[in-house]
């Protein structure tokens, strides 16, 4: 049971992290990455819609196009507020394309046929490597060196999807159980524990002492070479980041770990291109189908062992690895958590739900801040215990109250109000969802009967009681009364015109944090400063 | 209470621009006209073959699927001579595609869809000749068999409706793309208009990719549903049209300028002769449009009897009259003449 508003927030969180990682890769790595069609496809899916559209328009065009052509697609005649927004949106999309080195800007010099004046016009074209691979992905023409041959595939027996589902969930939950410190029969492997420690989700008591000793600024960098024994790692304790991690949905959790894995693999001198390619390739494999290990590179074989530990991959025999099976955790990696399900996927979901019913759709929240959770899973109870004051536990249910103290405790642990609200929302009992939907339908009916179109758009699905949501947010506001932004202050303008010009431009691209018209100053975000400076230089040059 | 809650906490971290376009999955239904006679004509005139067009469409379907992992496609064919309107993908019966057309290692969803589509179309083309030869011999020069294109369009709308209904959260947005090659005389006016109204009501944009002679009805369909009508002048570059102008996702439509033709031919077609007319008669009971007055003086659609006196008046040849106006009869119950706007 995935709930739209809450889960979209979560998947956005994940998207921004993977996007950030991809953005910060150097251009050479990007070029290497784009040689693989699967990676191109995965990168393409992570882009905003408009960026996807731009790529499609340029994909089958071999020549560069004037960058003004890109602006022409955007409506400018719509009403004032939305125009600004669409411009900001376009800017964001283009920024992403440039950050990923997908879009290349060139300048061409044109001579006016009559006046003979030369002008420079910016042109854009798609990254040729990306264009070639992505075209190949779409048209199916491709080089002969394939990862998997179809003929070989048929000889490999398939494994039932249910088996893989239980396997991967078991694996993943055992990691989570270890994190919340519940009694488990089997410990996760040393590799997993090292990663948890490295990523700062968990720490050894000695690390904690060190951190407390050195103060908050201390950043933990464990030595990777130092081989830690399982006896030592068994004593790992969960950190603030670990608490936050637990509140994310499973897809974001996997991505968080994989990103940490990527960072760790760079330190271990593994080629990030091969690691990323392997991760993205997993997303395009078929569930239940076995794939031979042989064609993988050495780096990828090392990765295979690690991914088996996380439950992303299954191999029938531990010693003699010839065939691997991707699990559902792996194949859904590059697909976002979207609201829409095919009938087949819905059935699958049902199967996993019934087996794993303690994990989803169990929480009832009342307006009086009482919480009832129909679960017997120690994992979920432990997570709830992070921000709910639990009162009583029954065979299949726990009850508790959200109090100021319990929420404050969670906030101090670094869990945000949004995370709590999202968690409650995405795990809400189906009955609560249904009630909320009925309420929504009634409201919409009312608004449409009085013909209030603007009001209709504002109505949103409220699964949790608004009082509770508000109160949790208020409790968070109590803690952070000051918000900080890094950026630049613009002041001492020589003319009104200059100030107005820069301000309008800044507002158009959405980088202004604060402004004071009377004293002619405004504050710009760090990221937007470069763009604004460019513009300012252009104006000054234009005037002189 | 609720209203207060909403306004007090606007998400400061999330960029408002991203709310403008939400990333929801979408469904693309494509209807391809594969009327063999028309294709033969087109191949002669413009040197574009069905094979090229289908391969471009397959690439477009792949592109649509690549936008979002939850995106869906459906492909319908319309063929007036045999098979009629038919669903090609997704197949209803579980037919295991035996071979994969493209190289292995391709994204599995693409491979599956492409294989299934190519198999079916090839199968259709192979079995066509014998029956078709007879048809060509017999039917050429005679009246057209009335198009199944409208039928395929309504089937596609039904499919969209079904999928949207089964989607619990109603998040799926859909659009319909019609690849048409025949002219208007193969389209039944009433059914086309009905599909237009249906898609208008369902808020589904109808995009039209027009090869061959241009079509007023499909122009109207695109115009009424906020779709794109593109007349393809260079069929070799079809893929560029398909991935640019005809590739605007429903969620992008609010902010994108649609590259459609502004001047639309709003003329309707006569119910008897099937020709598009500038000025004609309208039955006052069922609003059916006529270019000639039928012999039996009955409406061909609703069979209501027209007033004989009025008809004789209408049939009267124009003659120079003394300055006197006679339009009080126009409000009468039976058979009135109303000029249609051109």
Notes on the structure:
The complex is a heterodimer of chains A (544) and B (342). With 544 residues, chain A is an alpha+beta fold. Among the domains of chain A are: 28-145, Arc Repressor Mutant, subunit A, CATH 1.10.10; 161-331, no CATH class; 487-543, Alpha-Beta Plaits (2-Layer Sandwich). Chain A has 26 helices and 15 strands. In chain A, the strands form five sheets. A four-stranded antiparallel sheet of chain A has the order 9-10-12-11, with no helix packed on it. The longest helix of chain A is centred in the N-terminal third of the chain and has 20 residues, at 4-23. Chain A is globular. In chain A, 35% of the residues are buried. Mean pLDDT of chain A is 76; it is low at 1-13, 143-152 and 337-359. Chain B is of the alpha/beta class and 342 residues long. Chain B has two domains: 24-247, Rossmann fold (3-Layer(aba) Sandwich); 267-317, no CATH class. In chain B, 37% of the residues lie in helices and 14% in strands. In chain B, the strands form three sheets. A six-stranded mixed sheet of chain B has the order 3-2-1-4-5-6, sandwiched between helices. In chain B, α7 links the parallel β4 and β5 (205-210). In chain B, α4 (50-67) packs antiparallel against α5 and α7 (189-202) packs parallel to α8. The longest helix of chain B is centred in the middle third of the chain and has 32 residues, at 108-139. The model of chain B is unreliable at 1-18, 94-105 and 331-342 (pLDDT under 50). Classes of the chains: A alpha+beta (544), B alpha/beta (342). At the A-B interface, α1, α3, α4, α6 and α7 of A face α1, α2, α4, α5 and α9 of B.
Q: Can I get a quick summary?
A:
The complex is a heterodimer of chains A (about 550) and B (about 350). Chain A has about 550 residues and is of the alpha+beta class.
Topology of helices and strands:
The complex is a heterodimer of chains A (544) and B (342).
Chain A: H1 4-23, H2 27-33, H3 37-45, H4 49-59, E1 65-66, H5 67-72, H6 80-99, E2 103-111, E3 118-126, H7 128-139, H8 150-155, H9 161-180, H10 190-198, E4 202-203, H11 205-214, H12 230-233, E5 237-238, H13 240-247, H14 250-267, H15 272-282, E6 291-292, H16 298-310, E7 313-314, E8 323-326, H17 328-331, H18 343-355, E9 363-365, E10 370-373, H19 378-384, E11 389-393, E12 398-401, H20 404-412, H21 417-426, H22 430-449, H23 453-458, H24 466-479, E13 487-490, H25 496-509, E14 512-516, E15 521-525, H26 526-543
Antiparallel strand pairs in A: 1-3, 2-3, 4-5, 6-8, 7-8, 9-10, 10-12, 11-12, 13-15, 14-15
Helix pairs in contact in A: 1-14, 1-21, 2-15, 3-7, 9-19, 20-24, 21-24, 25-26
Chain B: H1 2-8, H2 16-20, E1 26-33, H3 36-46, H4 50-67, E2 72-79, E3 84-89, H5 108-139, H6 149-166, E4 173-180, H7 189-202, E5 205-210, H8 216-224, E6 229-231, H9 238-243, E7 268-269, E8 276-277, E9 281-282, E10 289-290, H10 308-315
Parallel strand pairs in B: 1-2, 1-4, 4-5, 5-6
Antiparallel strand pairs in B: 2-3, 7-8, 9-10
Helix pairs in contact in B: 4-5, 6-7, 7-8
């Amino acid at each position: 049971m995935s709930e739209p508003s809450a889960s979209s927030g979560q998947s956005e969180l994940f998207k921004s992290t993977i996007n950030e990682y991809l953005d910060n890769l150097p251009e050479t790595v990007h070029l290497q990455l784009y040689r693989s069609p699967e990676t191109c496809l995965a990168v393409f899916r992570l882009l905003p819609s408009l960026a996807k559209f731009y790529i499609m328009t340029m994909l089958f065009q071999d020549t560069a196009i004037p960058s003004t052509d890109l602006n022409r697609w955007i409506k400018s005649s719509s009403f004032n507020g939305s125009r600004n927004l669409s411009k900001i949106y376009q800017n964001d999309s283009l920024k992403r394309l440039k950050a990923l080195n997908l879009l290349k800007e060139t300048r061409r010099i044109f001579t006016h046929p009559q006046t003979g004046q030369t002008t420079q016009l910016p042109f854009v074209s798609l990254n040729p490597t990306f264009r070639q691979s992505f075209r190949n992905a779409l048209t199916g023409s491709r080089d002969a060196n394939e990862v998997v041959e179809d003929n070989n595939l048929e000889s490999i027996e398939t494994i039932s999807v249910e088996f893989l589902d239980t396997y991967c969930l078991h694996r993943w939950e055992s990691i989570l159980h270890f994190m919340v410190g519940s009694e488990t029969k089997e410990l996760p492997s040393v590799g997993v524990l090292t990663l948890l420690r490295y990523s700062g989700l968990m720490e050894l008591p000695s690390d904690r002492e060190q951190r407390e000793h050195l103060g908050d600024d201390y950043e933990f960098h464990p030595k990777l070479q130092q081989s830690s024994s399982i006896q030592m790692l068994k004593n790992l304790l969960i950190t603030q980041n670990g608490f936050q991690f637990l509140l994310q949905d499973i897809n974001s959790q996997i991505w968080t770990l994989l990103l940490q894995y990527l960072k760790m693999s760079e330190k271990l001198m593994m080629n990030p291109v091969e690691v990323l390619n392997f991760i993205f390739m997993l997303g395009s494999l078929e569930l239940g189908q076995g794939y031979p290990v042989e064609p993988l590179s050495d780096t990828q074989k090392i990765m295979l062992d690690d991914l088996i530990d996380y439950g992303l991959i299954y191999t029938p025999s531990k010693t003699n690895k010839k065939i691997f099976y991707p699990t559902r955790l792996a194949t859904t990696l590059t697909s976002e958590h979207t609201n829409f399900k095919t009938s087949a996927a819905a059935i699958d979901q049902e199967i996993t739900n019934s087996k794993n019913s303690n994990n989803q759709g169990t929480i009832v929240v009342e307006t009086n801040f009482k919480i009832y959770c129909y679960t017997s899973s120690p994992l979920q109870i432990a997570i709830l215990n992070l921000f709910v004051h639990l009162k009583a536990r029954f065979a299949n249910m726990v009850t508790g109250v959200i109090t100021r103290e319990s929420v404050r405790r969670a906030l101090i642990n670094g869990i945000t109000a949004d995370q709590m609200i999202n968690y409650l929302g995405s795990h809400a009992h189906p009955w609560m969802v249904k009630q909320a939907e009925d309420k929504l339908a009634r409201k919409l009916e009312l608004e449409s009967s009085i013909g209030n179109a603007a009001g209709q758009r504002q109505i949103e699905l409220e699964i949790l009681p608004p009082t509770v949501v508000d109160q949790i947010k208020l409790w968070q506001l109590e803690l952070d009364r000051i918000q900080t932004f890094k950026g630049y202050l613009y002041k001492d303008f020589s003319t009104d015109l200059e100030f107005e010009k820069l301000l309008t431009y800044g507002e158009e691209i959405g980088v202004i944090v604060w402004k004071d018209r009377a004293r002619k100053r405004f504050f710009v975000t760090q990221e937007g400063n470069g763009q604004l400076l460019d513009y300012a230089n252009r104006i000054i040059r234009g005037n002189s | 209470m609720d209203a207060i809650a909403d306004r007090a906490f606007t998400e400061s971290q999330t960029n408002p621009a991203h709310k403008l376009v939400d990333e929801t999955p979408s469904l693309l239904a494509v209807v391809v006209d594969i009327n063999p006679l028309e294709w033969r004509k087109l191949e002669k005139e413009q040197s574009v073959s069905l094979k090229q067009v289908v391969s471009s469409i397959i690439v477009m379907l792949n592109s649509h699927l690549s936008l979002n992992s939850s995106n869906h496609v459906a492909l319908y064919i319309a063929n007036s001579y045999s098979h009629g309107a038919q669903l090609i993908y997704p197949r209803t019966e579980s037919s295991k595609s035996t071979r994969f057309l493209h190289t292995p290692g391709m994204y599995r969803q693409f491979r599956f869809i492409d294989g299934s589509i190519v198999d079916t179309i090839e199968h259709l083309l192979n079995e066509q000749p014998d029956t078709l030869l007879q048809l060509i011999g017999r039917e050429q020069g005679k009246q057209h068999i009335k198009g199944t294109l409208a039928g395929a369009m309504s089937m596609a709308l039904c499919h969209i409706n079904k999928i949207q209904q089964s989607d619990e959260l109603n998040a799926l947005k859909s659009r319909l793309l019609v690849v048409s090659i025949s002219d208007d005389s193969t389209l039944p006016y009433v059914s086309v208009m009905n599909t237009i109204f249906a898609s208008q009501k369902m808020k589904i944009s109808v995009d039209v990719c027009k090869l061959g002679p241009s079509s007023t009805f499909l122009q109207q369909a695109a115009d009424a549903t906020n779709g794109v009508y593109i007349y393809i002048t260079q069929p070799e570059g079809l893929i560029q049209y398909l991935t640019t102008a005809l590739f605007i996702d429903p969620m992008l439509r609010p902010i994108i300028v649609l590259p459609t033709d502004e001047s639309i031919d709003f003329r309707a077609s006569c119910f008897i002769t099937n020709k598009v007319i500038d000025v004609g008669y309208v039955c006052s009971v069922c609003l059916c449009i006529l270019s000639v007055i039928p012999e039996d003086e009955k409406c061909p659609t609703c069979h209501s009897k027209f007033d004989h006196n009025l008809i004789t008046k209408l049939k009267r040849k124009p003659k120079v009259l003394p300055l006197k106006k006679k339009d009080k009869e126009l409000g009468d119950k039976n058979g009135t003449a109303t000029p249609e706007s051109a």
